[in-house]
Every structure is written in C-alpha cells, then in structure tokens.
Amino acid sequence: MVKNDKIAIIGDEDVVLCFKVFGAKMFGVTDIAQAKKAIEDVKKQNYSIVYVAQVWAKQLKHILHPLPDETFPIFVVIPDGRTEDSMGLEKIKNAARKALGSDRLFEEQ
C-alpha cells in the first residue's frame, strides 16, 4: 500500500528541473553534503518515491534505503548522462526483469 503520493527528485539542477512538470519536489544539489542532506530530508518528510541521479546515488548508496521497519521511501536511481557506467539503467532493467519475468523489454531488435 502506498504511504502517500509524495515524489521527490535529487540531482543537479538541470536534471531535476524536468521533473517539475510531474509535480515532484525538486532537491537540486551541487555537492555530496547537499545530496546527503536531501536524502535525509526525504526520509523524514515521508516521501513515497525518490528519484536520485546516478552521480549522487553512486556516492551515497549506503544510505539509499528506507528507514528501519519501513517500506518507503523507494529510491530509484536514474541515469544522468554524466557517468560512464550504467548503474541506474541496470537497476531499472533488474526491476523490469522481476516484474516481467524476462529480459524482453531490453532485447535489441
């Protein structure tokens, strides 16, 4: 059951701005301290879904989890085009595999 409909996005200003049209609370960050504070804030403010730009998620993966005994928030790592690896895309692929039971969604044609 969804806790509420609060959605947040944490990332660089240019990444988070596009999510404003979807009604997400924007947390524009420029350094690791701001990113960490934003993650702590969304946990305290009872957000259900939090999108985190890959560049910050890689550095803060040890705190990207719900509070103890809680299901939410759900942290979703999104590719930001600034990192070489595909951490965000791999997490999306894994979630799709679990939901669909196969890799069909990401097969190349």
How would you sum up this structure, described in words?
The protein has helices spanning 13-16, 32-44, 54-60, 87-100; strands at residues 7-11, 25-28, 49-53, 74-78. By secondary structure, the protein is α/β, with parallel strands linked by helices. The protein has a four-stranded parallel sheet with strand order 2-1-3-4. It is globular. It starts with 6 loop residues before the first strand and ends in a 9-residue tail after the last helix.
Keywords:
alpha/beta, 4-stranded parallel β-sheet, globular, 109 residues
Secondary structure elements and pairings:
Blueprint: E1 7-11, H1 13-16, E2 25-28, H2 32-44, E3 49-53, H3 54-60, E4 74-78, H4 87-100
Parallel strand pairs: 1-2, 1-3, 3-4
Helix content: 25-40%
Strand fraction equals 15-25%
Q: What is the β-strand count?
A: 4
Given as residue ranges, the uncertain stretches (5+ residues, pLDDT < 50) are: none
Strand order of the largest sheet: 2-1-3-4
The helix-and-strand class reads: alpha/beta
**How would you describe the shape?**
globular
Backbone CA Rg: 14 Å
Kindly report the average pLDDT value: 79
Strand and helix order: EHEHEHEH
Distance between the termini: 36 Å
Number of helices: 4
Could you give a short account of the major beta sheet?
Answer: 4 strands, parallel
